[in-house]
Structure formats: C-alpha cells, structure tokens
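Running this now, will post back.
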Amino acid sequence: QVQLVESGGGSVQAGGSLKLSCRGSGYIFSSCGMGWYRGKERELISSINVDGITAYADSVKGRFTISQDHGRNTLALQMNSLKTEDTAVYYCAADVGCLYPSGGDYVRTTSKSWGQGTRVTVSS
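Update: finished.
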C-alpha cells in the first residue's frame, strides 16, 4: 500500500523558513508525479511530474521550492520568506498511476494517495 508521511512542520515567525519532507513507501517513488497541498480544501501548492517538471501556485511562486530525492524516496518543500497566510496543514500526495507490488505483479494506483499532514504556523 502506498504510504506517505510528512514531517518538518512547526511554528515560525513571518519571514522565516521551514523545510517539509515527505517519505514515500510501498511504491516505486519515481513512477508517478507528486505534489504538496494545504488546507482542508487541499489547495495545490506545488507539483513535480515524472519528468521532474515543477509547477507552483502564484501565491508561493518565488518563495517555495519543490524537490525530490529518488534515492531516499523523499519529496521536499523548501519554504522561504514565510507569510502568515501560509499558515495551514500541509499535505503530501502522490498522483494516480503509482506502481506498487501486488500478487507478484506491479499495478498502478487508481486514486490519489495522501499523507497525514504536517502543521505550519506562521506568526507575525
């Protein structure tokens, strides 16, 4: 089963930085795109596809950087120049199509996989 575990959240003053991490397991990490989302509505913040192409929401462009380490099965979000508006629970997610072992075969997920979330609080 695809499992994603976020870490790195916490409290920081406006203008500060945090780095979030997401450790994936149970699937081939490089087989699907991934992204970071925030809030109960799970707004898309940043994504990276299987070719390494990245995209950012306008609200975080120039401040956040998404990256992945295939060797460690880790997705990261470097968050700089944090604003109070960035306060939210941040979620890591894997797109559909992730390959995972099942009954001697590899099959692809048919729904998005989500981590449990990590809380970020930015104070003025």
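The mean pLDDT is 97. More later if anyone needs it.
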